[in-house]
Amino acid sequence: KLYTATFFMEKLSKGGSYLPPFAQYMELIYGGYSMTDIRKIIRRYAAFTEAGFMRLIEELKTKYGKTPKIAIVLVGSNSASEIYVRNKIKAASFVGMEHELINLDESIAMEELLSVVERLNNDDTENGIIVQLPLPKHLDEHTVINHISNKKDADGFGLENKGKLFSGLDCFKPATPLGIMYLLERYNIDVEGKMA
Question: What values do phi and psi take at 31, rounded to 5?
């Protein structure tokens, strides 16, 4: 059976226990924590239980005096995107994160969407930003994604984060491949020399 990020999102919203893709979101919301510190914290809660995520959020709240918050921008009414966003919101709420959902009309102009992203980039209460893809055809996804501050690029889709990823540097990594890597590591699955 192929376990996707959606599977783990649904599992979290129903009270499941092993949710490695959400480790990605743990990497974006921590103010001054370095990636090394975050990895140590995540490994300390190696089972990735909801209780572990909740403890992590509480630890961050205590250290920084605020609740981590993620902004999710949804443009239009793509039914698959709405499901993904709904599950992301449930997951964030379940572990104690704040969220802001910004629903925008499908006909929004590119300049208006970039303005929304810029507002979120400059908002110190927002620790991470996700622009849910796909966007309507008249909007350039690459331009929008690359307008997100690399420090708030929760999906890790921006050019700076991709460049760091391919250079082996600390960055925000796309959640689905990161989740797969955590699963392979968790179950000690050696993939060296194997073909997909």
Answer: 45, -115
- Quick count: other Cβ atoms within 10 Å of Cβ 196? 3
Q: In what order do the strands lie in the sheet with 69-75?
A: 98-104, 69-75, 128-131
- Measured in degrees and rounded to the nearest 5, phi and psi for residue 33 equal -65, 140
Query: The whole model's pTM is what?
Result: 0.70
User: Is the separation of the CB atoms in 78 and 10 below 8 Å?
Assistant: no
Please tell me what DSSP assigns to residue 172: P
pLDDT digits (tens, 9 = 90+) for 55-89: 888 888 898 899 989 999 999 999 999 999 998 89
Can you tell me the distance from the alpha carbon of 9 to that of 184, in angstroms, rounded to the nearest whole number? 18
* Tokens, residue 40: 């140590």
Beta bridge partners of residue 75, listed in sequence order = 104
* Amino acid letter, residue 120: L
